[in-house]
């Protein structure tokens, strides 16, 4: 059985050291758009550790949340992409990483002409609790008995969440989810779902394994801190997002060659993308799509069927989901009238989405 305190301590120590001295072998080698790195300080680049490039999914005007933001490299890359109308938030629990990232907060904002990145001390599986605010409260209100504990719990309930519900367009992360203990992963995915806006997107680069990692490896704190023994099994990685209500899941990036092979288990970097679906009634605006092929037919997560070469009437939500999603190049989009009606287009009763 995992000892969460030991694993968390190993991760904290490893990344505290990595914030002070560059550790080039700490994670998978990967490459980034050099244009986004030009203005970044050398120490931010050298002491950042990841296995993919989620910045590829950032759009102008996005509110972006980076889970496990480390030195802030990914945040500062995203800040250039969201522009002055967007905003970037980084969350991390490591004080040394936060100090390094915040060191350049204002200079980077001036250089990019954007809003400064906000860096918040949070555990990524609990995006409601700002740990620095907790530390300040406890310093002024020590918990010494039941009454003081009750005051703390009351304060915590009344304190607004560090990251508010439905406030984020895109959640990104770079080789961090695997560091969270197995028993907290469902909570982690629920938190991602909570903070995303309807229609919000996920782009998570992380390490997966082709087989289940055995218990003896999971209990090795060094392998856990090295992003190995906490790896999601491939199908598990998809399943935890599906079970939480995400749709349009895809392994958008998949590293063919294994990064590590241990006890016959292959560990590799992948990038998973997903969407928090828009809810509500189906509104029909006369929109249609044509599936280009090459397969004779395909189905989406809402059980719509698309026949190759045939027009399919869809509701406005489905139309927009296909247009914004990873399969957009596989469809021809035929816009309808600007006036939408409550006529259900996708399924009887209009409850398909």
Automatic annotation (TrEMBL):
Q: What InterPro entries is this protein classified in?
A: Arsenite_MeTrfase-like (IPR026669), Methyltranfer_dom (IPR025714), SAM-dependent_MTases_sf (IPR029063)
Q: Does the keyword Signal apply?
A: no
Q: List the SUPFAM superfamilies.
A: S-adenosyl-L-methionine-dependent methyltransferases
Q: What is this protein called?
A: Arsenite methyltransferase
A Gene Ontology molecular function term for this protein is:
arsenite methyltransferase activity
Please report the organism this UniProt entry assigns to the protein.
Serpentinimonas maccroryi
Question: GO biological process: any one?
Answer: methylation
User: Family per UniProt?
Assistant: Belongs to the methyltransferase superfamily. Arsenite methyltransferase family.
Keywords on record: Methyltransferase, S-adenosyl-L-methionine, Transferase
User: By its UniProt entry, which CDD domains does this protein fall under?
Assistant: AdoMet_MTases
Catalytic reactions of this protein: arsenic triglutathione + [thioredoxin]-dithiol + S-adenosyl-L-methionine + 2 H2O = methylarsonous acid + [thioredoxin]-disulfide + 3 glutathione + S-adenosyl-L-homocysteine + H(+); arsenic triglutathione + 2 [thioredoxin]-dithiol + 2 S-adenosyl-L-methionine + H2O = dimethylarsinous acid + 2 [thioredoxin]-disulfide + 3 glutathione + 2 S-adenosyl-L-homocysteine + 2 H(+); arsenic triglutathione + 3 [thioredoxin]-dithiol + 3 S-adenosyl-L-methionine = trimethylarsine + 3 [thioredoxin]-disulfide + 3 glutathione + 3 S-adenosyl-L-homocysteine + 3 H(+)
